[in-house]
Amino acid sequence: MPLKPKICYSRRRINCSSYGLFCTFAPKSKKHNSMSTQTPFLVFSGTNSRYLAEKICNSLSCPLGKMNIQRFADGEFSVSYEESIRGRDVFLVQSTFPNSDNLMELLMMVDAAKRASAHSIIAVVPYFGWARQDRKDKPRVSIGAKLIADILSTAGINRMITMDLHADQIQGFFNVPVDHLYASTVFLEHIKQSYSLENLCIATPDVGGTKRANAYSKFLGTPMVICHKSRPRPNEVAEMRIIGDVKGMDVILVDDMVDTAGTITKAADLMIAKGARSVRAFASHAVMSGQASVLVDHSALSEIVFTDSIPYTKKCEKVLVLSIADMFAEAIRRVCHDESISTLYVI
After folding, report:
1. Are residues 162 and 190 in the same domain?
2. Do 167 and 218 lie in a common domain?
3. Quick one: 194 and 154 in the same domain?
4. What string of DSSP letters covers 75-144?
5. 59: domain range?
6. Whether residues 303 and 197 fall in one domain
7. Disulfide: which of 92, 131, 134, 240 matches 167 by Cβ 3.0-4.6 Å?
């Protein structure tokens, strides 16, 4: 029985003398060569975070990935990638602020990327919604932040990049690595460049933000005061008092988010009444629900500064928005090159 000839693979024509055959190996196609020049990562965006994703891509000098989100008459939608992501590191930019369509979009983007054989899937969530539901504060309630973390992990993310979680321990809710960035990197630079530190005083609008305010105070070398409040029910402040002296001071209130603006405006009004020369506020996330912008306009606040983690679409003359795009772009670059993220932190 004759032996089965071996197939010889080579870039050049060779003599397979054992079997009297000649074998050739075709060179790599142009398409294969072009793939080797592609960046190892791609950045995609959900509908309501596209403005930020475009800025991040501009900072990274790369195009925003092509994706289609098709919406149907009944409110459902489908997600599809319009380019190959096989073997690529995929960064999905989407803040999960209400309504829940933003979260659902992200989940479907993750699932589609997993089914399209992406090498790794990194959720870039500048504002992590539901974060205030981080514990059982009364019987028979869900821990929403843990639930969302479990859903994202189950959907298939390999890493999470976020900023200023409402509570640091939420990082432990995830079963994947979490890179937790801080808006202080952007805020402190602005404070040093824009305001005199001579009469500056850092304040927190509630006891829960004491650690954050203390970090600002130590870095800037300024005094700190605390506002103590009591809430009869969510989004309503019944009583507030100041611990510390603000007379003649330029006060900066720091917080992770502003929702109804009830706390931050009441604190500003109280501090002016106690003799503060001016009051400004810095908050990472501009949730700004309902009539919050009107409340800020009519308050004693001189200015309120947010990041663009959430799109601020309302009008308020006192609002200033600083971009976090460069910070997130640098974090993405470092993740791709296996470099340290912690050196991005100022405090």
Report:
1. no
2. no
3. no
4. S-EEEEESS--TT-EEEEE----SSTHHHHHHHHHHHHHHHTT-SEEEEEESS-TTTT--S-SSTT---H
5. 41-181
6. yes
7. 134
**pTM across the whole model:** 0.86
Active-site positions? 229
253 neighbors 279 (Cβ within 8 angstroms): yes
Question: Quick check: helix, strand or coil at residue 197?
Answer: coil
Q: 326: phi > 0 → left, psi -120 to 50 → alpha, else beta; which?
A: alpha
SS3 12: coil
Per-residue pLDDT for the chain (347 aa), expressed as one digit of tens each? 555 544 444 444 444 443 344 444 444 444 444 444 567 899 999 999 999 999 999 999 999 999 999 999 999 999 999 999 999 999 999 999 999 999 999 999 999 999 999 999 999 999 999 999 999 989 999 999 999 999 999 999 999 999 999 999 999 999 999 999 999 999 999 999 999 888 999 999 988 899 999 999 999 999 999 998 776 666 565 678 999 999 999 999 999 999 999 999 999 999 999 999 999 999 999 999 999 999 999 999 999 999 999 999 999 999 999 999 999 999 999 999 999 999 888 88
Rounded to the nearest 5 degrees, what angle is found at the Cα of 231, between the Cα atoms of 165 and 181? 10
Those residues whose C-beta lies under 8 Å from the C-beta of residue 132, and which sit 6 or more positions away, are 145, 166
CA distance 334 to 338: 6
For residue 327 the two structure tokens come to 């910070």
Query: Locate tokens 């409040």: which residue?
Result: 229
Number of other CB atoms surrounding residue 300 within 10 Å = 16
Within a domain: residue 344?
A: no
Q: Please classify residue 172 by burial: count the beta carbons closer than 10 Å to its beta carbon, then call 0-12 exposed, 13-18 middle and 19+ buried.
A: exposed
> Which amino acid does the sequence have at 147?
L
Task: Give the distance, in angstroms, between the CA of residue 259 and the centroid of all CA atoms in the same chain.
Answer: 17
Domain boundary among 138, 159, 181: 181
User: Do residues 108 and 213 share a domain?
Assistant: no
Amino acid present at 88: R
**Is 269 part of a structural domain of the chain?**
yes
